[in-house]
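Session log. Operator J.P. requested a structure for one protein chain; no other inputs attached. Running the standard single-chain path with token output.
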Amino acid sequence: MQLDTYGQQTRVLSQGANRVLRNTYLLLALSMVPTVAGALIGVQMQFSFLAGSPLVSFLLFMGISFAFFYGIEKNKNSGVGVALLLAFTFFMGLMLSRILQVALGFSNGGSMIALAGGGTAAIFATMAGIASVSKRDFSNMGKFLTVGLVVVLIAMVANIFLQMPVLQLVISAVVVLLFSGYILYDISNIVQGGETNYVTATLAVYLDIYNVFVSLLHLIMSFTGERD
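Structure written below.
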């Protein structure tokens, strides 16, 4: 009887995790629409977010982002949370337009953006596949990833003042590795039943993908960019 009850509980948990994962993927796909729209509008408008003041720009960006995070988390169980998430992804699309403008200044800009997109998709598919198929719990990665994120943020702020191209390349490479790990961690957290809200889960995975794409594009531009 106890084994029967345990089996039923396991099935219920598994069904719940699958539902959250499915809804996360659906909302993640939807979130790409405002992201692309924001990026296209930003490129057309030559959008620049306080480019002359990198530190102020960074602090303002972080402030707006955390305001969105708070609002999304506060309303994650309602349609307001979904609306805020989509508004945030539009904002992130606008922010993305800056690096896209730089990329399009190269003669091979379009192919570099496509390569970064393909690379990001391959990384996501691989990490999500491992997290979904493997029965291993990757939650023990959390502390390591958090420490890595803090170190990266400190390095990014430092490089605002240092302006060292080599350090920026190192940061970009570390970010690709770090957020690839976060994809594995976040998808595993959903599969294992640790995350039960698909809005929160979508926000986490979206940020993982976004950071991988931006850093991968920066690396590709640095090594393969061709001027006219």
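Operator note: The radius of gyration is 19 Å.
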